[in-house]
Specification:
2 domains; seven-stranded antiparallel sheet; four-stranded antiparallel sheet
């Protein structure tokens, strides 16, 4: 009997978040679909690829996802191994069952009757694969953060270095160099680098495991993170400068205050502060405007 991995997604889940993940037969998968609270999950829903649904993982790097749709309908999304997205809508839930049964067959799934969905330049795979929501520093993430937050620092530093080399044999007034240094430090990225290296030192060796729907999360040293519960959260404070034109608005620190007095600080080199707000959707979030030193 063919068994495929199926998994459940509810309306308050974030992209890539699934529960009840396990191998099931066709009959077991249909039972899972029939027991899903479609009516309740449909309320106040905005249709997207991450919606109340049952997703089935195929044997050919493909996926079949049954979700809620407009006008009380249902929709099957088929995402093939070439990352082409196709869709077919149904008025009745059981009308999708023959296609799901075909997906359980040994041959590659034939999406006859499905229409291609135009999602050019969109990353659709993330809506089908399971994420583990583990956030820790890697060489790649550090480089990406450095470039996105401190991109102005390197060229200005190189410019100052070039000026220093050019004037090596023709010394200029020390006051001019002090002026250049101050301009570089406060306007050209010196403070950016202080934020970067401070955040890097603090977050190095730490890990955050947190998703939107799961109240339990972990934070601390990678080898031994501490278990916490969002129900114990008193307040979430985002420390960030005010104003989109402020040169330091790329940096932020999330402060989590728990009922037992525990304070957790998470710089946005580990996870973006807006993503943290999304994960803490049902909890109070306040903003503390100022330089986000840690």
């Amino acid at each position: 009997m063919t068994q495929l991995v199926s998994k459940v997604q509810y309306k308050n889940f974030e992209v890539g978040e699934f529960v009840d993940i396990g191998e099931r037969s066709f009959e077991e998968t249909i039972a899972l679909i029939n027991s899903f609270p479609w009516k309740a999950e449909r309320e106040n829903i905005q249709i997207s690829l991450t919606n109340p649904s049952i997703t089935i993982e195929g044997k050919h790097n493909d996926f079949l996802k049954l979700s809620v749709y407009y006008q009380q309908k249902f929709i099957l999304h088929y995402f093939d191994g070439n990352q082409t997205l196709l869709k077919k809508s149904f008025t009745r839930l059981q009308d999708a069952f023959p296609f799901i049964q075909t997906f359980f067959g040994q041959a590659p799934f034939d999406p006859a009757g499905f229409r291609k969905e135009n999602t050019w330049l969109q990353s659709n795979l993330k809506h089908f694969v399971t994420q583990d929501f583990r956030y820790f520093l890697t060489p790649k993430s550090i480089r990406k953060y450095l470039w996105s937050k401190c991109w102005m620092s390197l060229p200005i530093f190189m410019g100052v270095f070039y000026m220093w080399v050019k004037t090596w044999s023709h010394p200029i007034d020390i006051g001019i160099w002090v002026y250049i240094f101050i301009m570089f430090f406060f306007v050209g990225g010196g403070v950016h680098l202080i934020f970067f290296f401070t955040y890097l030192k603090y977050a190095k060796g730490k890990i955050l495991v947190m998703s939107r729907a799961n109240d339990v999360f972990y934070y601390g040293e990678i080898d031994n993170p501490v278990k916490y519960d969002k129900k114990d959260l008193l307040e979430c404070t985002i420390k960030i400068v005010n104003g989109s034109r402020n040169p330091y608005n790329a940096f932020a620190v999330v402060k989590l205050e728990l009922k037992d007095g525990t304070i957790i600080l998470i710089p946005n080199i580990l996870v973006d502060h807006l993503e943290m707000v999304h994960k803490l959707n049902a909890h109070k979030v306040v903003y503390d405007y100022g330089l986000p030193f840690i």
